[in-house]
Amino acid sequence: MIHETAQIHPSASISDDVKIGAYAVIDRNVSIGNGCIIKDHAVIRENTSVGNKNTIFQFATIGEQPQDLKFSGELTKCTIGDNNTFREYCSIHRGTSSGISDTVIGSNNLFMAYTHVAHDCVIKDNCILSNAASLAGHVNLESNVSLGGFTLVHQFCNIGKFAFSGLGTVISQDVTPYTLVAGNHAKAYKINSEGLRRNKFSSETIKNLEKAFKIFLKSSSTFELKKETFKSLNISDTDVEHFIHFIENSERGVTR
To answer: What span, in angstroms and rounded, lies between the C-alpha atoms of 188 and 235?
Structure first.
């Protein structure tokens, strides 16, 4: 199960059924759960916890020290959930003491080739980062986010669930849930209706989100007037409530 050329630190905890390829490097205080596959030349750096059934492809690096000039070797970590796939040359950096001291990735995510997740990011479940999509530090992704190839996300941005970005998008403000954005710099074009249909959202919820999108993102009136306009529609929908709540709590402002 473990190739003879792999370098495994004595302090690493590795489940019995883990497969580790040639010249892979497993650093100190690493734990790897059941059913994981670590391919040739992959690297898992110190203080990284990898859950069950993850696949890390060749030349990917997980838990490397952050690219933060303030970092000076503090004890920080990287925490990975279950059933994630990290393709070739993917890089995930651990946290910093000035952040949350951790980089947290949930479950069932796909990180395509050359993707990058910087320090102190939090990624929930079922997200897709297409080739070379990159997150700066302190970025939060809710579940089911899909980032197109070469998407760049500025530090401290939050991206709501079921959001979708087009090829080469540059995101410098928060992205509302259920929203399709594209461009440099990003603009919000519409509700991600096709993605929502594929995920079994009702046509009524999609229509309600489209109404909220027009009122809250495309109207030039004040936020209070927007809320009054929306209230007059008598819409009761938990997804729409999440959309509005996200805007109310955005510190960077939202992509419009």
So the answer is: 22
Q: What is d(CA 128, CA 244) in angstroms, rounded to the nearest whole number?
A: 24
Q: Where are the domains of the chain?
A: 7-141, 196-248
Decide: pTM greater than 0.70. Answer: yes
Catalytically annotated residue among 82, 120, 125, 239: 120
CATH of segment(s) 7-141: 2.160.10.10
Contacts of 90 (CB under 8 A, 6+ apart): 56, 57, 60, 61, 62, 111, 112, 113, 114, 115, 116
CATH class name, domain 196-248: mainly alpha
**Residues 14/32, Cβ–Cβ less than 8 Å:** yes
Half-sphere exposure in the Cβ direction for 219 (13 Å, CA): 17
User: Among the options 33, 63, 81, 137, which is catalytic?
Assistant: 137
Task: Specify whether 137 is catalytic.
Answer: yes
Instruction: Establish whether 119 is a catalytic residue.
Output: yes
Among 41, 93, 116, 119, the one annotated catalytic: 119
DSSP letter (8 states) at residue 208: H
CB 100 within 8 A of CB 74: no
**80-101 average pLDDT score:** 98
Condensed to tens digits (0 to 9), the pLDDT of residues 20-47 reads 999 999 999 999 999 999 999 999 999 9
- Using DSSP, state whether 92 is helix, strand or coil: strand
